[in-house]
Amino acid sequence: MSRILVVEDEPSLRMLYRSDLSEDGHEVATASNAQEALAQLEEVRPDLVVLDIRMPGMDGLDAMSRILERNPRTAVVLNSAFSCYKENFLSWAADAYVVKSSDTTELRETVRRVLAERERASA
Amino acid sequence: MNPPPTAGTHESADAALARRVGELRVIREIAESLHTAPDLAVILRTILVGATAGQGLRFNRAFLVLVDAARGELRGADGIGPADHEEATRVWGELDARPRSLRELLTDYGPLLEGSSGGAVRGIVDRLRVPLADGDAFLVRALKGGRTLHVRDGEHAQLLGVSEFAAVPLIVEGRPVGLLLADNGITGRPIEADDIFVLELLAIHAALAIERARTSENLARKVAQLEDATRELREQQERLVRAERLSAVGEVAARVVHEVRNPLVAIGGLARSILRRRPDGAEAETLRTVVHEVLRLERVISEVLDFTHPPVPRQGTVALAEVVADAAALLRYEADKSGVELSVEVEPGPCEAACGRDDLFRAVVNLVRNAIQAMPAGGRVTLRAGRHGAAAVALAVADDGPGMPPEVRARVLEPFFTTKSTGTGLGLTIAAQIVREHHGDIEVVSREGAGTTVTLRLPAAIDGGEGKEVDDVEDPGR
User: Fold this and answer.
1) How many CB atoms lie within 10 A of CB A94?
2) CA distance B169 to B201
3) B459 CA to chain A: closest CA distance, Å?
4) Is the CB of B269 less than 8 angstroms away from the CB of A104?
5) What pTM, to 2 d.p., does this model score?
6) What is the ipTM of this complex?
């Protein structure tokens, strides 16, 4: 079972991601902003972090670099409302970029794929 | 056309006077016709018919040679007259059958000659071509000297294939218009001093009429050009307004999308979760409708985004000077309002980037708008464009505003990063993204208190190619 940390400032979306990713058999923790996420890193020790990019306070990109500083082996999936910056954000060392959609299939499959790749790489 | 008086015949004083009065009447009639002639072609015809009219000047044939300033030469413009004795006899016979006014002659004479003479006279007209620069050509000399020539030597008279002809320069206020040539090649009647005098009288009216027609044709052409230019200007203005509206829509859309998309995703996503768990539940149909409608809204949002920010870079080439001028024109009002002086410096010579015009325009507008907004108390913004090495071009937007501290400078290209209370913080990001999509780069140089310069560098447009393939996007499946 993989541990996933969802960082998202919208409570309703936290609820959605927790529900859907748990359904897929992951252990899901949530944080409502980047500081909270950083504070939970030691306790949760996530294999993968789902990061919203635009959040009040520290944004997702800053949060990503802090998380990777702590543990470079953490997988990161960026999740944003903006499709047009996909290419730019990918160059920021994220493993994947998913455009927010009510259909969470893409997010869930991306999470599954990235985790599987990590596992293969470390095996 | 009247039976030619044989040489040495002595006209009585009364007869001579009557003839002179007749000639003057014809001249007056020609002058009146010339005044009402609708265009140059009719004016030329009127002059030629006048010069060969039966009751008047009585030359057998006449030709007009006009100055063609554009080509720098004298060119035959029109000619009239029968081809030979046989045709002359036939045509003049028909014309003499009943007296005609000049106006009637104008309509009747041409068709009578159409048959055979077209060739002979037309051939001479087409051959009449002399470079104006040829100072030795006797027609050019006559025109420049303003002197009538009575050509009687065989060599020169050969120009019209006759033994003698008269050439009268057409001059208006010192400007050479052309020459009126006339001969009696059919009957061989000698050209007398009186004939030349009347021809000169006709030439005065002819020159004025031709000059007037040409001036009005020129004027009509200039008016048409002006109308074209005005229309082009108006179209350009409309394009600018459209582009401006689009960029405003883009800013609003970017904000709305973020505010609306998250709640939508939650509504639709949660409905899907319930459906997945209880696909046959009592409210399944209702939930499916919720899912469906949310999807529809999400699609609308995506379309708005695609519309305001086409995800595919537009290829093409664009002149930097044009983009810079358009951007300056669009933002002139905004700049004025903020007390910002907008100036443009474009390196002379061709300077084109391998980049879609609209893409680069959007990038530049974003940069200039940022620069203006950085100086609420006014200042100066300079747009510079020029070549950058052999294979690239550069476009810089420089302001002399407050500049940025290093920590701000380090983040200006990040999306949504803004120090302003208004705006989405996407302006520079969009510019950077556009330039990168076109294989260029962006550089931001800023010193606190000394202003900021943003420079875009793009591959120069090359004939037949537009740089390397699009391959900068990292594999999303990584």
Assistant:
1) 24
2) 11
3) 20
4) yes
5) 0.45
6) 0.86
